[in-house]
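Lab notebook, design round three. We kept the backbone fixed and only want residue identities now. Task for the bench partner: fill in a sequence for the structure below.
Input structure tokens:
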């Protein structure tokens, strides 16, 4: 049986072309094998895929060192020249000479007399509220309270109305210690105010108050207690 071949399927005439193509492919594979770089898997095993990167060999890391500023230059303090003199010499200040002759011969200035005003005299007729020295009952405040307690008579009207409390009486201790200008400053009623004024007027003379060492008229206030027992 005679075999029939298709002229288009005859590969013999393309043999040289196929050989050249195979050599080119083989050469390309060899070149690619030389360009493949090997990595140490032991180092990259602990890294994730995103952490495995390669630093190029020609990568230049910039220098981040900060150069400290230079210290300021020391300023030299000029030293004053000291002059050594002998013990028998008198030191002088050549830069600032002082002439004491004019100061000694200069006449002393005249003293200015200043008159100090004399303190105003106290008007002895003015009633003082808080003099330098307060007026005082003979024997002191305790003696005053005892005098009032022994001489006050409880008014009958105040007893019937069961009125108790304190009556405040003001008066003036004159320069001679006598009592004047007696009046009620606070009343509780029932005739208690009038009784307190009566007893105050019978008090003995006081020691008068003093201002600038002189006796003056002094205003005084005394509480008089009324209590039923």
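Proposed sequence:
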């Amino acid at each position: 049986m005679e075999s029939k071949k298709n002229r288009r399927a005859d590969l013999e005439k393309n043999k040289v072309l196929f050989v050249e193509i195979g050599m080119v492919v083989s050469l390309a594979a060899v070149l690619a094998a030389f360009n493949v770089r090997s990595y140490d898997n032991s180092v990259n095993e602990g890294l994730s895929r995103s952490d495995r990167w390669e630093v190029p060999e020609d990568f230049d890391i910039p220098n981040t060192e900060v150069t400290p500023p230079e210290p300021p230059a020391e300023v030299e303090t000029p030293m004053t020249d000291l002059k050594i003199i002998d013990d028998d010499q008198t030191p002088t200040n050549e830069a600032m000479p002082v002439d004491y002759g004019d100061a000694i011969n200069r006449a002393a200035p005249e003293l200015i007399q200043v008159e100090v005003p004399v303190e105003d005299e106290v008007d002895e007729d003015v009633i003082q509220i808080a003099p330098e020295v307060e007026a005082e009952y003979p024997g002191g405040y305790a003696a005053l309270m005892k005098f009032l307690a022994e001489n006050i008579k409880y008014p009958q009207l105040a007893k019937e109305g069961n009125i108790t409390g304190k009556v405040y009486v003001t008066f003036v201790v004159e320069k001679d210690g006598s009592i004047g200008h007696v009046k009620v400053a606070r009343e509780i009623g029932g005739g208690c105010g009038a009784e307190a004024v009566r007893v105050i007027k019978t008090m003995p003379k006081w020691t008068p108050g003093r201002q600038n060492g002189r006796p003056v008229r002094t205003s005084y206030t005394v509480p008089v207690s009324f209590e039923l027992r």
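Keep this in mind before ordering anything: The two ends are 172 Å apart (CA to CA).
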